[in-house]
Specification:
single chain; about 325 residues; alpha/beta; D-Maltodextrin-Binding Protein, domain 2; 2 domains; nine-stranded mixed beta sheet; 12 helices; globular; disordered N terminus
Length: about 325
């Protein structure tokens, strides 16, 4: 066979093979979803990750026309579940709830994190944000945060603050605020918020910076007094409580956000369907009301702004955590 014939024939065969493979390559994106979708919640049932995952799973089922289940993959804080989702096939059938803690705080807490929150994930949409509320034992003699910080500066490490464990959001909110305020209190870590509240209510520890959704019930019951919120502005759930930023004690701006993420490499058509489904869910009045009852707010910013928020928080909190010398368990 002459060379002038071989070249066109080879090109024709290559094109034929490419065309034949095209439907196979596209399969899984054009037909998605064709089976059950799993949302990984990297913490046990009952917490913020699990709550958000179940709200999304319940509302997305009828929109996507497939079963959406929640799987709690726990261990090493949030690292085991997050790593498993990062390594899952990028086909849209394994998703994950990402939050400030596992996406933006962990990179500063751990030197050898087994996943990269930017390189390993794509954001499908933000669901809700919660602030943290700084509460004090109800018999604390200081009337506001300014008095607390003034006393702490004059009496280093005499006052105490609780956390739900080393490297928890509660720990970081307090430690970073104190670092920015140049004040020193003694840290008392507990194994979760429930144990911390027992000692706050018993007057054995002075302060606790807890997620606002959990702190609200204690504040409303009058068992603790609220001193400040961690967000830059005031929170609708605590309209009479100033922000730390507002008091001029420290330039703190911290909100715990939760969103739906897919493994990097997930086809764009699948991501587009996910983002559209998320937008529908977050526009539902009952979903907004459900989160509002616990002090949460549904983000109103655009998809591009949400992605920029994730990236900026990763950079900002990694820097702040390392400057404060905070390490995780």
């Amino acid at each position: 066979m002459s060379n002038w014939f071989r070249a066109p024939m080879a090109a024709t065969l290559a094109c034929t093979a490419l065309l034949a493979s095209a439907p196979v390559m596209a399969q899984g994106s054009t037909d998605w979803p064709s089976r059950t979708i799993t949302i990984v919640a990297p913490q046990p049932p009952g917490g913020g990750f699990d709550t958000v995952a179940r709200v999304l799973a319940d509302r997305m089922r009828p929109i996507l026309g497939q079963s959406v289940i929640v799987e709690n993959r726990t261990g090493a804080g949030t690292r085991v579940g997050t790593q498993s989702a990062a390594k899952a096939p990028a086909d849209g059938y394994t998703l994950m709830i990402g939050a400030l803690s596992n996406m933006a705080l962990n990179p500063g807490l751990y030197d050898n994190l087994p996943y990269d929150p930017i390189k390993d994930f794509k954001l499908a949409g933000m669901a809700v944000t919660w602030s943290y509320t700084l509460v004090a034992r109800k018999d604390l003699p200081m009337k506001d945060l300014k008095e607390v910080i003034a006393y702490a500066k004059a009496n280093p490490e005499k006052m105490t603050y609780a956390s739900a464990g080393l490297g928890s959001g509660q720990h970081i909110a307090s430690a970073v605020m104190l670092k920015l305020a140049d004040a020193k209190l003694t840290h008392v870590p507990y194994r979760g918020s429930q144990d911390a509240y027992q000692d706050i209510l018993g007057g054995r520890v002075d302060l606790f910076f807890d997620i606002s959704s959990a702190a609200k019930s204690q504040v409303d019951a009058g068992t603790v007094k609220a001193l400040a919120v961690s967000s830059k502005g005031r929170q609708p759930s605590h309209p009479n409580v100033p922000s730390v930023f507002e008091t001029d004690v420290a330039p703190l701006d911290m909100e715990s956000w939760f969103g739906l993420f897919a493994p990097a490499g997930t086809p764009e058509p699948v991501l587009a369907k996910l983002r559209a489904a998320m937008a529908q869910v977050m526009a539902m009045p009952d979903v907004q009301e459900l989160f509002a009852k616990s002090g949460g707010q549904v983000p109103k910013n655009s998809a591009a702004e949400q992605e920029a928020k994730v990236r900026s928080d990763i950079e900002r909190w990694t820097k702040l955590i390392r400057e404060a010398g905070i390490k995780g368990d």
